[in-house]
Fold:
Amino acid sequence: MPLMWNWSMAERSDRGRPVAFRGGGFSPRPLGVVGPLVFIAVLAFWEAGCRTGLIPPLVLPAPSEALAALAHLVETGLLWKHLGASLQRLLVGWTLGTLLGIAVGFSIGLFSLARAGLAPVVAAIFPIPKIALLPLFVVWFGIGEGSKVATILFGTFFPTVVATYGGVDNVDRNLIRMGQSFGLSWLSIVRKIILPGALPAILPGFRISAAIAIVLLVAAEMIGAEFGVGAYILLAGSLMALDELLAGVAILSVMGLTVNWLIARLERFLLRWRT
Structure:
């Protein structure tokens, strides 16, 4: 009897308590403050280690010295020359490589003939380090902008192809059969079912290809480029100016963070139907 009374009292007290919403599943909670705090803590520890002599300045200069070198770049106007040249090469190479990769990836995912002919070629060339092909591109396109853009394009193309046809393959076939049963045309099925279903795999492929593009950009600019972040880093390293070298690395890090933020915004816009 006391047990029944306690149970009824607990049930009565829980009636007015709101039930927590669990529709989000395992979706991550936005904790935007954590990342900047960790970054500031790392920089503070780094600065303190340099000022106390724990980190020798010949091994790693303090963040304040790299910031001073970056400020000098801004004052002289060299920052915009280096950054403008790098962004132009990155934008052209990554855009062309991504568009071609999406087109070829959809061809492999949708057409049996393209899969039989192109998938083995992609599998054979994809593991080759694209930096190793840079001298070949210099021979083909010259030491100017053509070889640099071609290197970025080539490196961006293959991960986009793999992500695209992998996303097409992972689309639920029951949805495609349902579209066929409703009499949808082939183009309507591709546009309304396959493309939205493949986007969750294609968009993360953009992140990978953008990171590869930045790596190849630096490598390409270290060969025969007058302006560019890679050329600036190469010059600073040859002069053992570690503060300027770290300033160049910081510029690359900001470029990567910006590209990642833009792709995240694109994912949020195109995949808002999943929430």
